[in-house]
From TrEMBL:
InterPro entries: Chromosome_partition/occlusion, HTH_ParB/Spo0J, ParB/RepB/Spo0J, ParB/Sulfiredoxin_sf, ParB_dimer_C, ParB_N
Protein name: ParB/RepB/Spo0J family partition protein
Domain (ParB-like N-terminal): residue spans on this chain: 42-132
Protein family (similarity comment): Belongs to the ParB family.
Length: 303
């Protein structure tokens, strides 16, 4: 009998799946294995897992996914994915799609997973919340996730804040991103802009000016502070213009009223005077009879 001990070092380096390679249960992927029964982790065949239709992440960086796959080849799956059981040998992802996709690229056939029981709404809520908390989502993906939690899970903003560990103001700031033009939203998605840039741009009401500042920010790679300064200058200029215009309107109104009073006194009847910013308008002099009309015409020296 040989005294040589089995070499398990490489198996440890390759993750949980490698530790179980010699298990008699390896051909029964949907069965709880003795080694993992206490932790509630299953070894499930990748072919038995469906992707998550409620996945908040839409775009996966190919290079980052390949890097994760290379890491999995060496280290194995460090954190199990989470799935729900649909039927015998049929599962659906709740969270961990990056690990799931990277495992396929790494050539794995099985993956460790926590199995939960959930209906569609619970599935959606768990998927969104777990991904928001665990994955490196961009600001727009978080905003869409928040919106879905509010709309499809019937949560209020206060409840949503409690679920994701954020205050109402933070939640609202993300939701406001969805009001930005599609061009700016795409830039946030592609990480050309950060959350700070977007929050500043939200405060520009005029879409054309908003897009102009956005274009300048991207082309010149402006910092968040510089974008905030541009927006502040724009809004302060607008306020000064509005204040100045209100002052002019007040003076104009006073002058028009004064002229109306003089005309009414001159013709002995109520006179309506209207004028726009370009000093175009009209004067209306009402009369009540032919005699009254002749009186006004005499004043005008027409007859």
């Amino acid at each position: 009998m040989s005294d040589q001990k089995p070499n398990r070092k490489n198996a440890l380096g390759r993750g949980l799946g490698a530790l179980l390679e010699d298990s008699p249960a390896k051909n029964k992927p949907t069965e709880i294995l003795p080694e993992v029964a206490k932790t509630g982790i299953f070894e499930i065949s990748l072919e038995e897992i469906q992707v998550n239709p409620y996945q908040p992440r839409i775009h996966f960086d190919k290079d980052a996914l390949q890097e994760l796959a290379e890491s999995i080849k060496v280290q194995g799956i460090i954190q199990p994915i989470t799935v729900r059981k649909l039927a015998p040998n049929e599962y659906q992802l709740i969270s961990g799609e990056r690990r799931f996709q990277a495992s396929k690229l790494a050539g794995l056939t099985q993956i460790p997973a926590y199995v939960r029981t959930a209906n569609d709404q619970q599935m959606l809520e768990m998927a969104l919340i777990e991904n928001i908390q665990r994955e490196n989502l961009n600001a727009l993906e978080i905003a869409h996730s928040y919106q879905r939690l509010l709309a499809e899970c019937n949560l209020k903003q206060e409840e949503l804040g409690d679920r994701v560990g954020k205050n109402r103001t933070t939640v609202n700031n993300y939701l406001r991103l969805l009001k930005l033009p599609p061009t700016i939203q795409a830039a946030i998605r592609d990480q050309q802009l950060f959350m700070g840039h977007a929050r500043a741009l939200i405060n520009v009401e005029d879409v054309e000016k908003q897009l102009a500042i956005f274009k300048k920010a991207v082309e010149e790679e402006l910092s968040v502070r510089k974008v905030e300064a541009l927006v502040k200058a724009l809004n302060e200029g607008k306020q000064e213009k509005e204040t100045s215009q209100k002052g002019l309107d007040h003076v104009r109104k006073y002058e028009i009223n004064k002229i109306q009073q003089r005309l009414a006194s001159h013709f002995g009847t109520k006179v309506a005077l209207k004028a726009d910013e370009k000093n175009r308008g009209e004067i209306k002099i009402p009369f009540n009879s032919a005699t009254d009309l002749n009186r006004i015409l005499e004043i005008l020296e027409i007859i």
